[in-house]
Amino acid sequence: MTELIAQPLTATAFSTFGEVIDLQGGLDYAQRMVINDGLTERFHDLFTIDISAQGAGGTARPIVSLFQTKPLPLPHRVRVMERHPLSSQAFLPLDDLPFLVLVATATDGVPMTATALSLFITNGRQGINFYRNTWHHFQIVLGKTRRFMVVDRAGSGENLQQTELQDEVWIPAAEY
Amino acid sequence: MTELIAQPLTATAFSTFGEVIDLQGGLDYAQRMVINDGLTERFHDLFTIDISAQGAGGTARPIVSLFQTKPLPLPHRVRVMERHPLSSQAFLPLDDLPFLVLVATATDGVPMTATALSLFITNGRQGINFYRNTWHHFQIVLGKTRRFMVVDRAGSGENLQQTELQDEVWIPAAEY
Fold first, then answer.
1. CB 3.0 to 4.6 Å from B126: which of A17, A47, B96, B122, for a disulfide?
2. pTM of the full predicted structure?
3. What are the CB-based long-range contacts (under 8 Å, 24+) for A155-158?
4. What is the nearest CA distance from A86 to chain B, expressed in angstroms?
5. DSSP secondary-structure letter at B114?
6. 8 Å CB contact of B42 and A95
7. If we measure between CA atoms, which residue out of A103, A100, A109, A94 comes closest to residue A148?
8. Which residue from B12, B7, B10, B41 is spatially nearest to B25, judged by alpha carbons?
9. How many independent structural domains does chain B possess?
């Protein structure tokens, strides 16, 4: 039995899985523009919307949705991971509270085990953008119901795959 | 001299100018889905990202940026309005505070006057999506610096036009 411990989310640690979206504001952005008579800082083009893969019929467009998610009761046994073969998927919190991000590396055709998993916790001013085909757990929030803007895809084709974990893995009850 | 008074933002009142994006959650959505073992309500595809118009060279992609905007000092004289001929532009607040939205109707070639203007105030759980070519004032927030996710466009072509107002219009100092 494996218990997962969350590590702080950083762009480097997450680089295999997707992009960390900095919602802090400040000077450390690649494209920072001052507009609106000096009143607005625009931090431009924060992540990569990838809807390049086409499903059957070949229609695809990016969409923005609202997620309202209840806390995941802990301890939680991790049984199923999912991925989206046709699009990236970004999560942008509408508040400044941390959330958990569980991702996995995998080789097609090889059963997924505990060693494939990585658990991260955001600093409250971070969003994330899963790359297309990144294995991940469904959204995990703790403490209270949370709202997120989610950027992914609508269109033809099946954009959800799931796989079962082969061994016993838990997210323990902990104070995050 | 005209002083603008804000009216509550509703989808009906705003329908000429763009879409009102409901960030409240609840049951009143056209596409509401329950996912993630029942923990998440997905309010699907909230607004229309329009990058259908092409600039010179014809490259365009939707992007998401962070805006961090300081309060506009009031009273404020409205001198210039702007529009984006190549894309819609959505503003999604990262908090639950109201903001002002100043828009205008116009006929190309006819100077813009005070009667063209409409000022709205959001309820705190609303975002907005300006239609392509909707005349609007740059972002107006009051009270404290605010952060927004903005969905618009990157690509070839000039996506900003501006016009000067022909008469004297003010947003008065008021308690919103």
1. B122
2. 0.96
3. A155/A51, A155/A54, A155/A55, A155/A57, A155/A59, A155/A60, A155/A61, A155/A86, A156/A54, A156/A55, A156/A56, A156/A57, A156/A58, A156/A59, A156/A60, A157/A54, A157/A55, A157/A56, A157/A57, A157/A60, A157/A86, A158/A55, A158/A85, A158/A86
4. 17
5. G
6. no
7. A94
8. B41
9. 1
Indicate yes or no: CB of A154 within 8 angstroms of CB of B72: no
Please report whether residue B176 resides in a domain.
no
Query: Is the residue at A176 inside a domain?
Result: no
- Give the gap in angstroms from C-alpha A103 to the nearest C-alpha of chain B: 15
Does any domain span residue A115?
A: yes
**Structural domain of residue B85, as residue ranges?**
2-171
Question: Using DSSP, how many helices (H) and how many strands (E) does chain A show?
Answer: 1, 16
* Cβ atoms < 10 Å from Cβ of A138: 16
- Tens digit of each residue's pLDDT (9 = 90 or more) over A47-84: 999 999 988 888 899 999 999 999 999 999 999 999 99
Q: What is the pLDDT of residues A105-122, one digit of tens each?
A: 988 889 999 999 999 999
Which residues of B fall within a CB distance of 8 Å from A44? 63, 65, 154
Q: How far apart are CA B115 and CA B16, in angstroms?
A: 15
Residue B175, pLDDT above cutoff 80: no
CATH number of the domain where residue A116 is located: 2.60.120.480
Residues of A whose CB is below 8 A from B36: 69, 138-139
Under 8 Å CB pairs connecting chains A and B tally to: 120
